[in-house]
Amino acid sequence: MASWGYDESNGPHKWGESFPICKDGVRQSPVEITTSKVEVKPEFKPLEFKYVPDNTKDIENTGSSWKVNINGTGSSLSGGPLKEKHELWQYHAHWGSDNSKGSEHRVDGNMYAAELHLVHWNTKYASPEEAAEKEDGLAVLGMFIEVGTKHEEFNKIVEALDRIKYKGDQTVLASPVDPTKFLPESKDFWTYEGSLTTPPLYESVTWLVFRQPIQFSEEQINAMRKIAFCCKDDKHHAMVNNFRPPVPLGSRVVQGNATQ
């Protein structure tokens, strides 16, 4: 696969050279959410989460983020606009070099310091890899992160970041992480049909972006900024600004489960 990243030589403005869907796609992500244009769908059923903490044990540095891999089944998402059950596959984050930027989605022009993505795959397909290439294959929960109080559950991940400082590093979390504890108190969400925000940029994602942000402490967000894009033997290149700017919504409509 062609090399891609977030700097001047291989960043999002260059992805289209290796991944034509970046330029030619019709449902790319992320997008700007304009709250005054959201179509309210009160018929959406509440989202249902069933997460198994014991399945979240392995964490790695992918060279574009940290990523927690889900081992086994049983952690699922359903409801809202989803017609089938989706299994949790992995989760990761995107963040900025300072707290003024970092989130991939924007709301009325505003960015957050970071954004957490819980990636699920449609179990009507045989594997997450197969689902990732299907138009209804993935569902991603997006959570905005703002600077505030320390997040106790996320601290389990922070404590592992020193052990995955470089691209390719992988370790086992000291204790299982419960993804349920990342969910905001309010489960109101926006949803639209989109894509992966990193190459290969497959247009296979039903996005569910929570309206209410969650909080990580300044120290916790800084810990993410200390890991590296690069391998151990390369010059240290701090992993910051690993987000794709918003792309045009086009003819798509962002829907919501409640009034703004």
TrEMBL record:
EC number: 4.2.1.1
Protein name: Carbonic anhydrase
Organism lineage: Eukaryota, Metazoa, Ecdysozoa, Arthropoda, Crustacea
Organism field: Caligus rogercresseyi
Major enzyme class: lyase
Domain of life, per lineage: Eukaryota
Domain Alpha-carbonic anhydrase: 2-258
Reaction catalyzed: hydrogencarbonate + H(+) = CO2 + H2O
Molecular function GO labels: carbonate dehydratase activity; zinc ion binding
This protein's GO CC annotations: cytoplasm
Family: Belongs to the alpha-carbonic anhydrase family.
General function of this protein: Reversible hydration of carbon dioxide.
Cofactor(s) of this protein: Zn(2+)
Keywords: Glycoprotein, Lyase, Metal-binding, Zinc
